[in-house]
Amino acid sequence: MDVSFLGGPHPQRGVGIVAPFDFALDRELWRWVPDEVSLHLTRTPFVPVEVSLDLARLVSEHETLGEAVRALNAVHPEVVAYACTSGSFVGGIAGERAMCEAMTRAGEVQSVTTSGALLEALQELGARRIALVTPYTVSVTRALEEYLAEAGIEIIGTSSLGLTRHIWKVPYRDVVDMARNAIRGAADALFISCTNLPTYDVIPQLEAELRIPVISANQVTMWAALRHMGTRAVGPYQALIDHSARQHPVTPESLPESMSGSVPEASIPGSVPEASIPGAIPGSVPESQGPVLPEEQEGWA
Asked: Has residue 5 got a pLDDT over 90?
């Protein structure tokens, strides 16, 4: 059979991704990527250490990063991104810059990190006062606050879960609840930290409700990496990516039906359909039910 008429495959541009060993949201990263770009992922070696600042330091050692980037060199990425928030803010601004320099030396291409991308995104949005959402423990959350303070960013409110495991299993409903709880004053933007925390589908909904830009760890990582390549991330109704969303913020009523209203039950693992709860108000969480969380939590980024 003659398939010459297909004329493919089409040339692909590559982004190399270095992620912590327990990163579980590969599919979410791809959702921000245009068709002509491929992601090439590698992970840091497993270490049997409790989630903590110590673990953040272990998965961001320069030797570890260098080995990961050298493995990616085989597929010739145009840019390399370190997809881990805590691993890239644990050393402060100087530590983040040193990480980029170490990766650039190993791969001889531009390098970005999640925490560095966060500062780029805040500058892009002109945001100086932000609300903060994290799944972390107090000590890791405090380190993020210190990193942002070093960059001149004021935190007006913080909401965190204190988790140490299975962060990728946190349902969208809990992410939304944390976001609402973090807004305790006038904020220029909301940041949802941790590349292992799912956020793609809730960003437009939260922006419509809160009327401020909402950015997340995976979003800013892909936005910055693709920007350094000279192309753009895709993400409708997301202010960081869709400039029209900044000029004309959407309202819940103007979102497509698939995005409007409350977070769909189907996207909430372990949730109970409202119809089966006597007297339930659509979109509410019954007090007796409480937040839906897995029994064990593992994973961080």
From this structure: no
